Amino acid sequence: MTAASNAVSSLPNPIAASPAIAAHVDAIVAELKSAQSALTGARPADPSRKAAFDAALARTAEVRGRGPLMPYLGTGLGNGPLVELLDGSVKWDMLNGIGVHMFGHGDPRMVAASLRASLADLCMQGNLTSNQDSVAFAGFLVDEAKRSSRLAHCFVSNSGCMVNEAALKVCMQKTNGAPRILAFQDCFMGRSITMSQIGDTAAYRQGIPLSTLVDYMPFYDPSMGARSIEMAVWHLKQYIHRYPGQHACFVMELVQGEGGFNVAPREFFVALMETCKAAGIPVWDDEVQSFGRTESMFCFERLDLGQYIDVVTIGKMSQACACLFAADMNPKPGLLSGTFTASTSAFQVGLEALRTMRDGGYYGPQGKNAKLHAAFREHANALVAKRPAWFTPVKDAFGRESTQYVGGTGGMCRMTPFGGDKDRILKTMNAAFEEGVMAFYCGHGPYHLRMLPPVGVMQPEQWGPVFEILERAMGRVAEK
Ligand SMILES: Cc1ncc(COP(=O)(O)O)c(C=O)c1O
């Protein structure tokens, strides 16, 4: 397996150039593939491992101070969408660390990139000590973003939350310390003290003294259509009128993640972004969850919104996280730095994933992301038709009923059984885990079953076995 060059100059790259290293990497990956070939579908836990597995989970809970949300401890062996757990079970992983593992488990290309990275002189790179792969990573993102936006520069850090902190600082400095932030209801932005305050979940900021001024905006409501756009613009103008010159930014997820995989049409964002522009408020697009998963690499590209975006943050599938900003947002020295940017393997695996997605036919209306989503909808709609009793109308915040049981876009897939009731969605998630599918939840009422499949490797026909298991899991919850 030859390495794609991470060179940003014609100067030598000794690891990538060595035929002996390439041959050894190939031999290791071949060995791995033979172990992976045993994982071909979901498998129940091995009863003989139960006691040891339970002890390992208890130790996990003891060390962390609480038990994990789901009893996941991997052996380290996986095969694309399939992963083996320490209890001997094999699961279809439709969650992937909430969207991190775009190529699932043990993808040979990613493993090879990681092996090469392990031979570099540094495990962690930083703002003072960068190898050329760090520049290649940031440069890749800038070049992709530049095609349809004014974004010109990139700051790298190792969590979505940290690049969000960077984005907020950039916006605040640009607006001379404007103290207020506009954000959508139900948004999620990470767990720092500031991001927990902007994120619209009360439980995530329990006990934290509130020091951040946030003005919440309604997200698009499909049942109201154009009225929803009118109402949101009215809301925004009210805030601007009430607090003139006080807003550092409007932060928007173009597809809401934790908030419920909610989507909105271009006109909704254009109306809000134009209002921001007229008032001199920077627009910050938080794509930490959606990046790479929609029908374009950056979600703003598909919606043709690049001209309005001043700052964008990305993370998860890219392995290292990034804050990109336009030239006129470039902050003064000293505002952005940190000991670590990311690990060498995060840069090399991230670049491998990004290049494979860009060059492998994943984007566009006929791309692999769109096709995987279409196959998801086909299976999901068939299940709704087959089991109508499980799909009861979902009530929105105004008490209006909806029969939209299937939603999302690209590699962000959601289903809403049992009227979107939180307790039954969580029970479905747990039953699915036991039966062999890992999924999660999203939304703040209604709640949805959330899936972030490994788009890079999952084949549309693999929804077949996944939905067989989901049907069994929902059946168990429906019976109770
Ligand atoms: C939209 C969005 N922003 C920011 C974050 C925070 O990223 P991290 O958990 O890497 O800090 C997340 C994480 O789920 C997210 O979904």
Summarize the structure.
It is built from 15 helices and 17 strands. The protein has 480 residues and is α/β, with parallel strands linked by helices. A hairpin with a 5-residue loop joins β11 and β12.
Description:
- The structure is a single chain.
- By secondary structure, the protein is α/β, with parallel strands linked by helices.
- The chain has three domains: 105 residues, no CATH class; 211 residues, Type I PLP-dependent aspartate aminotransferase-like (Major domain) (Aspartate Aminotransferase, domain 2, 3-Layer(aba) Sandwich), CATH 3.40.640.10; 112 residues, Aspartate Aminotransferase, domain 1, CATH 3.90.1150.
- The chain is 39% helix and 15% strand.
- The strands form four sheets. Strands 4-10-9-8-7-5-6 form a seven-stranded mixed sheet, sandwiched between helices. A four-stranded mixed sheet has the order 1-2-3-15. The chain has a four-stranded antiparallel sheet with strand order 13-14-17-16.
- Helix 5 packs antiparallel against helix 12.
- It is globular.
- The model has no long low-confidence stretch (mean pLDDT 96).
- It binds pyridoxal-5'-phosphate.
- The site of pyridoxal-5'-phosphate has 15 residues, from helix 7.
